[in-house]
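Tutorial handout. Part one gives the primary structure; part two gives the three-dimensional structure as tokens.
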Amino acid sequence: MARPLILMGYNYPNYPNLLGISIFTIWTVMAGFFLSWLRIKSKSVYSAALAHGAINAYIGLGLIIAPSDNEIMTIPLGIPALLSLTLVAAFAYMDLAR
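Part two.
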């Protein structure tokens, strides 16, 4: 039986449990705020698509530049990135709420 990659520890190999799934879910929701803000402000899907590609490239490069045994504390997908991404999402939300 096939299982989703996230349940097999795709982004967090040491955390193929509720913690890894929760962090990745929160991360993608926060990134969604930013990508939605780009889409609405630019009136084009291309800016959001380009940003999505840049995020994917950054994550791959970030894992090479700053490897860690504890992926929960890494720059691209861990808690430090989640905190900064939450600030960006809050800015995007406040800007759209104006």
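Part three, for discussion. The mean pLDDT is 88. The helical segments are 18-42, 45-65, 79-97.
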